[in-house]
Amino acid sequence: MAVLVNTFAKHATDVTSCSFSPNSKVLASSSGDKSVRLWNIENGSELSVSPLLGHTYSVNSCSFSPFGTILATASTDCSVFLWDVDSGSMITVLQGHKNVVRVCRFSPNSRFLLTGSADETFCIWDVSSKKLVKCVDGLESSVLTCCFTPDSLHIVTGTSMGDLCIWDAQSGKMMKFYAEGHDLGVADCCFSPTFGSANPAFQDTSGGAPQFMLATGGNDNLVKLWDIFTASAFSAECHIRKRCSLNGHQGPVHGIAMSPNGKIMASGSSDKLVILWDPLLGVSLLTLEGHTRYVTCCAFSLDGNWMATGSNDRMVKLWKICLTESGELDQSGRSTSKPILQSTLVKKQEPQEPKKQRKKLVTWSIDDVCSWLISLDLDIYCESFRQNAIDGMELSNMTSEVLTSDLGIGPAGHRNKILRTVKEIKKEELEEDIPDEFLCPITREIMTDPVIAADGYTYERASIDEWLTSGRLTSPMTNAPLKNSSLTPNRMLFMLIQRHFSGQNINV
What we know:
- GO terms for molecular function: ubiquitin-protein transferase activity.
- It comes from Pocillopora meandrina.
- It is a single chain.
- This protein has 8 helices and 32 strands.
- By secondary structure, it is an alpha+beta fold.
- A 5-stranded mixed sheet has the order 26-27-28-1-29, with no helix packed on it. It has a 4-stranded antiparallel sheet with strand order 2-3-4-5, with no helix packed on it.
- The longest helix has 21 residues, at 412-432.
- It is globular.
- The model is unreliable at 334-357 (pLDDT under 50).
């Protein structure tokens, strides 16, 4: 059973990544709004040092060091920041990539930081000296995900072409290439922390090849489990063997995570769902609903009690994972074949019930409207609204004249409060349904001056101008060289964006 205990809603755009501190007390979340936020798990508050600001474009990944003193963040601005978690101050900026940095992961032994980029490279950094140890190129496509093996001796990378590779972490030599591990790209990967050679109790004095379990999520809607055999005392060869493919999602799988005991695996997808799996049996255990847009990331706390999920709906959700004494998912609360989802709020929320239920304004009943008035401390007008049968449809078209003449609302402050709040609700609803093509690929913000670059993609003029003037002569989307720096106004898209918002009288 998994219980929703809190929802963090301070990010302005998509949540891209989340990571728990090793003591399981702090949750970090990164976003396309260029910020990283730190949350107190126990009381749901944001830490005083949060948000962490400094990146100039979307923050795509965040990761706590094994000791929890450092937080690494990777960004579209081509840089990696290291932060002091206690003070919230920036320790250093790691410069080495020439394009978007998609992912950052620490080695389990805490000595190294691994970063992967759209420039078709991955870099290994020494955490103590903050120096670049090795930059490995030649992957021939963007590195979307990467991680160390549990013994920190090897690295696995997944690319936009769908290829999986094993690399020697010390030499940077490719040890094994597996083409098209996922048909449309490998979006995320992680190792089981307890399977095979990763288990602390595992003892092998024969010199045989270490064996680990790798989980991957792909744009082909699949979760896949793999056996990874690394170099042994008898052979330097590495091997990749597919264990199984798990069907369950109806969209690309963006996030994958293993519980600390290795008995539960989580996956998040464009279908807005999070599925919990038994990785040893290869079966689904529970499906969680709650996000209203793509689920982009998921993570377990080291104590195994918590799971976090992030989404394009700008929300980070915190789930309590209920376990049996043997450390398996407690499913005693299931009375039907459909998993039961419970929801409990740790913190008292503001009583805006229609908004909390994400019910569209035009579908509000008269009772919903009155509940909303009460939440605004304007309950003195409930009777008038009832007598005039003001439901959500009528409220959405409300004018100051109607409020005055028909509903008897005299104070200008009360009229303005009602109209202003209605406008805010309509704007929030509209933004929830914004087509992805209205957002700049670089900043993930609504475009006000869309232009077409030489790669055929449309960007916000100011963002692509800054990209080009900084010396980056490659496409932010494909990493291919740009033939020229010309920018053509996308008048059709501009008109569509204006039309989308004009119906609601909202300026972008």
